[in-house]
Specification:
Helix content: 25-40%
Shape: globular
Number of helices: 12
Largest sheet: 5 strands, mixed
Order of helices and strands: EEEEEHEEHEEEHEHHEEEHHEHEHEHEHH
CATH class of the largest domain: Alpha Beta
Number of strands: 18
Distance between the termini: 28 Å
Structural class: alpha+beta
CATH superfamily of the largest domain: ATPase, nucleotide binding domain
CATH architecture of the largest domain: 2-Layer Sandwich
Strand content: 25-35%
Radius of gyration: 23 Å
Length: 419
């Protein structure tokens, strides 16, 4: 049983979530079945960055122990998500001559073209996390998805290179390594969530996935089935809570309850004189405060101001790639911040795109918990790891033996995992 276990570990700034899957023989062959999901509070991580290895290790160990008690088997390896706001996303092109005398393009030619595209200067202390081919061209014929088997003389490729700050990657992997876990894959969080949430049709038409976490907002943009842009922004749902706490002059735990139960991203249509009785919340949160009522309109104004700022930053990222208001499949939200009331309606207006909250599409599960927005990144890590064993990730039909270029990153792991 142990050999068939796959685990996805999503290390967030407020919670660590671990989803465990098992490969079983189903009616249609080998299938991946979710057998457990756990979450524990995080210590030692702030805004996606490890600031205490000891505390992070303790949190991961607690999560691992809880998961092993739940599924009844040891977990020895995991795929992990990266949510570092210091990531870099750059495009690069490579050109090679086809090696065979008959002009048929082989897998080796594709590998050479991708390696040529990677021959660019890497900033000091940065490591490559993902290399994602966007499109190929053969003898000037562009927008080719899979050139293997085609005939030509000149092969070109455009790739997206995603790099992370080496010191942060090393701190994260060191904390995981101290728990005794092996790391199978390092995956940027929005890319992992996309594997569980987005359909092939959405990626074909053009879609942006937005992971609205507690202290970071990460995004991934797809078009013609290819990843064309990604970014991690250093603010999230916790900043909304902090704004509510400052605006109402109340403790942060009470502000979180008020935001979740009475908050809205729409200030229009709310009665200016409407007051909310929050005395029950004050008692439940054991707050020594004499606050009794708050204006629902005022809460909505506070939340809307911060959400509008987040959407402006997201739209700025879309403008960088000339896709502002131009993604037919719209925006799909995941993460704990997706629970905000009227978030979808506000996104439609601010981003000028269709919008919805994401659900698990690409994996079957009977555990309702893992279909919640905050668990979709960890769930996507399972899908990523499972698909990587049988082929590439989200980039057409390039053959399995160059799958490492799509996220396995074994060379990176050998560099940054302590011996």
């Amino acid at each position: 049983m142990k050999d068939n276990i796959i685990a996805g570990l999503d290390i967030g700034s407020t919670e660590i979530r671990l989803v465990i899957g098992q490969k079983i023989n189903g009616l249609s062959g080998e299938e991946l079945q979710v057998i457990g999901a756990v979450a524990v509070p995080t210590s030692g991580v702030s805004r996606g960055v490890v600031n205490s290895i000891e505390e992070t290790t303790s949190s991961i160990s607690a999560c691992l122990e809880k998961a092993e008690r739940l599924v009844g088997t040891p977990i020895t390896s995991v795929s992990i998500s990266i949510n570092d706001p210091f990531i870099r996303c750059e495009r690069s092109k490579g050109v090679v001559a086809v090696s065979k005398s008959d002009g048929e393009i082989s897998e080796h030619d594709v590998e050479r073209a991708i390696e040529a595209a990677q021959a660019m200067s890497v900033p000091v202390n940065y490591e490559t996390i993902h290399v994602m081919p966007i499109k190929f061209a053969v003898d000037g014929q562009e927008d080719i998805k899979d050139p293997i088997g085609m005939s030509g003389i000149r092969l070109e490729v455009e790739i997206l290179i995603i790099q992370g700050l080496g010191s942060q990657l090393k701190n994260l992997t060191k904390a995981i390594h101290r728990t005794g876990l092996e790391i199978e894959n390092l995956v940027l969080s929005p890319l992992a969530a996309a594997e569980a949430v987005l359909s092939t049709k959405q990626k074909e038409l053009g879609v942006i996935l937005v992971n609205l976490g507690s202290s970071t907002t990460s995004l991934a943009v797809y078009e013609e089935r290819n990843l064309i842009h990604t970014a991690i922004l250093p603010f999230g749902a916790e900043h909304i809570t902090a704004d509510v706490a400052l605006g109402l002059r109340c403790p942060i735990n009470l502000a979180e309850r008020i935001k979740r139960e009475y908050g809205s991203t729409l200030r229009e249509g709310i009665d200016q004189e409407g007051e909310i009785d929050i005395r029950d919340l004050v008692r439940e949160e054991e707050v020594n405060d004499d606050i009794e009522t708050v204006s629902r309109k005022y809460i909505a104004q506070i939340i809307d101001a911060r959400v509008e700022e987040i959407f402006e930053k997201i739209d700025h990222e879309l403008k960088k790639i000339d896709r502002s208001g131009m993604l037919p499949a719209g925006v799909v939200f995941v993460g704990g911040g997706a629970y905000l009331e009227n978030l979808v309606e506000t996104a439609k207006r601010k981003l000028r795109l269709p919008a919805c909250v994401g659900t698990a599409r690409n994996i079957k599960t009977v555990i309702d918990r893992v279909t919640r927005p905050e668990f979709l990144t960890a769930l996507g890590l399972l899908v990523w790891a499972n698909r990587l064993e049988s082929g590439p990730i989200s980039n057409g039909n390039i053959k399995k033996n160059i799958g490492n270029l799509f996220g396995k990153a074994k060379g990176l792991l050998q560099k940054i995992i302590p011996k």
